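Q: What changes when FE2/S2 (inorganic) cluster is included in the input?
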Amino acid sequence: MNANRILQHPILGPLPRADTLTFFVDGRPVEARAGETIAAALVAAGWKAFRRTEKRHAPRGVFCAIGKCTDCVMTVDGTPNVRTCVTLVRENMQIKTQDGLGEWPVA
Ligand code: FES
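A: The predicted holo structure follows.
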């Protein structure tokens, strides 16, 4: 868990304490720190492919990390195309990696 998390930053110092929570990606539990984005939690946990492109099904992950490029979109609690780099994680969120444009839930 959190293989990529920076615990001691050379300028910012040690990582402050934070509550932990669990959310699920494709049914697998992932731990996160309260107050961080979905993408930050996934990168910390070692995830690289958040979605696949529509035509070539090429993997995409975090690119801009500021909500501009859409490379990080995933289906979050049934809503496709959510930019995970600017969306805060919540307890028990159900997230799916997205293939292509995603599917909207049928009403
Ligand atoms: S990484 Fe570019 S919108 Fe999220």
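Observations recorded in class: Strands lie at 8-9, 13-14, 20-25, 28-33, 51-52, 59-60, 73-76, 79-83, 94-96, 98-99.
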